[in-house]
């Protein structure tokens, strides 16, 4: 695509990134077929190609309006378009640049600003979130059905083993996951313990920065990212092999640290190294599967449907890996139509775009539940909580199922 960027952006690092991405788009439109918002709304401006066009217009100095902002806000950042695109267009990096410019040119009203600020603080501050969740769980039985379903029931974690292995890896605790589903990281520690790996959890690191980043608070996100890099660096130098992430949303973010800090002379190298050491839990378990398989008693287990989060399949390009692990462990997997489509969770999207989000959730649940599974398994806390709010069956993290399959033979 021909571009002629305006003076305000063309010689900046963002301008150069955007120009290279814009030039790689050949306007073929293949991406329209797999874009969830285009499927629901049928408007070219709610498709990847339409949004790329809007960003190009903006970067070329044409007027930016609230309509431009609306079409960019409606994007889920699911990156399904990146998987489909034959030209390798890095859409999400272009969207970051576009959203940043539109934020400056079309200031939001105070209600919208306060909502976004409140979401960042609420979700990114574990003590605040934990206390609010506890209150919500206490009041849950008295609430109307819709509200009750949006507050997950209290979950207890089985114990974390005390481990002492030579092989050590870092684990990212996460900002909301320990409160919503504490058993996920506990199950991870138990399974990796059986594989001879000790997990190091730094209490000073909880949020990966994704919430700030996707709400356009880029400076706040970079501050968190640099803090995480500094905290992890000491452990990496002391021999930690990898950074294990149990939420695919956080994994996609940490794997992007290298890109986000590539122009920072102090952090570029460290950020690239951190990204290269980041692993989704499924990558670790797959690498250790020769040790894990003998620990799982061959058995016919329950029927499950697997929901592959966008941040796993499109963001990290991990496809079919968890399904294979579950199938090897004896679970029967039911077929899921349109598995490439987003469930509508998408970070804070379910709060900021509730109508579209609920439509996507209902479509996803219909596909997941069509094979009458006993359980839905997934790999990201956001998708898990969002799907659970409307599902007829339990929604769980896949490592909890593997953990039980291993524990059951003890
Ligand atoms: S983003 Fe990719 S698939 Fe979509 S129009 Fe551009 S080149 Fe085609
Ligand atoms: S990221 Fe998802 S919602 Fe956004 S344009 Fe691409 S496919 Fe559509």
Sequence-ordered SSE layout with sheet pairings:
Layout lengths: L6 H4 L2 H12 L11 H6 L6 H12 L6 H8 L6 H5 L6 H15 L4 H15 L1 H14 L5 H6 L16 E5 L5 H4 L2 H12 L2 E5 L8 H5 L3 H20 L5 E3 L2 H7 L2 H4 L7 H10 E3 H7 L1 H4 L10 E4 L3 H6 L5 H8 L3 E2 L15 H4 L1 H16 L5 E4 L2 H8 L6 E3 H10 L3
Parallel strand pairs: 1-2, 1-3, 3-4, 5-6, 5-7, 7-8
Bound molecules: iron/sulfur cluster (2 copies).
Give an account of the 3D structure.
With 410 residues, the chain is α/β, with parallel strands linked by helices. It folds into four domains: 7-105, Fumarate Reductase Iron-sulfur Protein, Chain B, domain 2, CATH 1.10.1060.10; 116-150, no CATH class; 167-285, Rossmann fold (3-Layer(aba) Sandwich); 298-407, Rossmann fold, CATH 3.40.50.1860. Helix content is 54%, strand content 7%. It is built from 25 helices and eight strands. The protein has helices at 7-10, 13-24, 36-41, 48-59, 66-73, 80-84, 91-105, 110-124, 126-139, 145-150, 177-180, 183-194, 210-214, 218-237, 248-254, 257-260, 268-277, 281-287, 289-292, 310-315, 321-328, 349-352, 354-369, 381-388, 398-407; strands at residues 167-171, 197-201, 243-245, 278-280, 303-306, 332-333, 375-378, 395-397. The strands form two sheets. The chain has a four-stranded parallel β-sheet with strand order 2-1-3-4. Strands 6-5-7-8 form a four-stranded parallel β-sheet, with helices on both faces. Helix 2 (13-24) packs across helix 7 (91-105) and helix 4 (48-59) packs across helix 7. The longest helix has 20 residues, at 218-237. The chain is globular and about 60 Å long. The N and C termini lie far apart (60 Å). The model has no long low-confidence stretch (mean pLDDT 94). Residues 35-37, 48, 51, 75-81, 91 line the site of one iron/sulfur cluster. Residues 25-31, 48-49, 81, 84-85, 87, 89 line the site of one iron/sulfur cluster.
């Amino acid at each position: 695509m021909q571009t002629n960027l305006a003076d305000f952006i063309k010689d900046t690092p963002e301008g150069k990134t955007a120009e290279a991405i814009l030039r790689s788009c050949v306007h073929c439109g293949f991406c329209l077929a797999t874009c969830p918002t285009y499927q629901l709304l049928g408007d070219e401006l709610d498709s990847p190609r339409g949004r790329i066009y809007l960003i190009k217009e903006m970067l070329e100095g044409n007027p930016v309006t609230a309509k431009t902002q609306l079409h960019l806000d409606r994007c889920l950042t699911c990156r399904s378009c990146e998987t489909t695109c034959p030209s390798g267009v890095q859409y999400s990096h272009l969207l970051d640049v576009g959203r940043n410019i539109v934020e400056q040119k079309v200031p939001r009203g105070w209600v919208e600003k306060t909502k976004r600020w409140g979401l960042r603080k609420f979700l990114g501050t574990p003590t605040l979130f934990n206390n609010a969740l506890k209150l919500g769980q206490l009041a849950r039985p008295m609430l109307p059905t819709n509200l009750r379903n949006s507050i997950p029931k209290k979950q207890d974690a089985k114990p974390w083993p005390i481990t002492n292995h030579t092989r050590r890896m870092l684990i990212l605790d996460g900002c909301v996951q320990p409160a919503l589903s504490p058993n996920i990281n506990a199950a991870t520690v138990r399974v990796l313990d059986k594989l001879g790996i000790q997990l190091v959890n730094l209490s000073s690191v909880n949020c990966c920065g994704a919430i700030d980043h996707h709400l356009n608070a880029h400076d706040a996100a970079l501050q968190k990212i640099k803090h995480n890099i500094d905290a992890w660096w000491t452990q990496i130098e002391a021999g930690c092999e990898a950074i294990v992430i149990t939420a695919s949303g956080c994994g996609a973010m940490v794997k992007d640290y290298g890109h986000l800090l590539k122009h920072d002379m102090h952090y570029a190298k460290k950020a690239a190294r951190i990204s290269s050491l980041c692993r989704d839990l499924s990558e670790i378990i797959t690498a250790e599967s020769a040790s894990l398989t003998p620990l799982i008693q061959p058995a016919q287990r329950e029927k499950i449907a697997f929901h592959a989060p966008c941040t796993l399949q499109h963001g990290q390009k991990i496809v079919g890996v968890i399904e294979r692990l579950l199938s090897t462990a004896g679970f029967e997997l039911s077929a899921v139509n349109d598995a490439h489509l987003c469930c509508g969770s998408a970070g804070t999207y379910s709060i900021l775009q509730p109508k579209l989000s609920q439509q996507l959730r209902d479509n996803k649940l219909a596909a997941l539940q069509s094979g009458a599974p006993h359980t839905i398994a997934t790999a990201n806390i956001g998708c898990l909580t969002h799907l659970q709010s409307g599902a007829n069956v339990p929604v769980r993290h896949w490592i909890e199922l593997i953990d039980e399959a291993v524990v059951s033979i003890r």
